[in-house]
Write a structure and sequence with these properties.
globular; six-stranded antiparallel beta sheet; 16% helix
């Protein structure tokens, strides 16, 4: 699904098995990724030149349901994107 935030288009894509979610920007980069197996990556977009590094919030371990909430908060904080809680499910 493609959406618009602050003049920038982005898409939210979910893997077929439901364990990974990507937020891809219209600038051609992956703004954020949540993986139940590999953790959280929230990256700056090209529209954020003030950011010192690519990573705005990243972890590199198996992610839990609590991490899913942190991911959603960080994406909202850094990109202004609301990711609905039920996009991914946890057993």
């Amino acid at each position: 699904m493609t959406k618009l935030v602050e003049g920038l288009h982005y898409e939210i894509a979910v893997s077929g098995n439901g364990d990974t979610l990507w937020i891809n920007g219209d600038d051609g980069s992956c703004w954020a990724r949540f993986s139940k197996r590999w953790g959280i990556d929230v990256h700056r977009s090209q529209a954020m030149p003030e950011a010192q590094t690519e990573c705005l919030y990243c972890t590199h371990q198996r992610a839990s349901e609590e991490d899913w909430e942190i991911f959603r908060q960080q994406v909202l904080r850094h990109h202004g994107i609301v990711v609905e809680a039920d996009v991914l499910s946890f057993p």
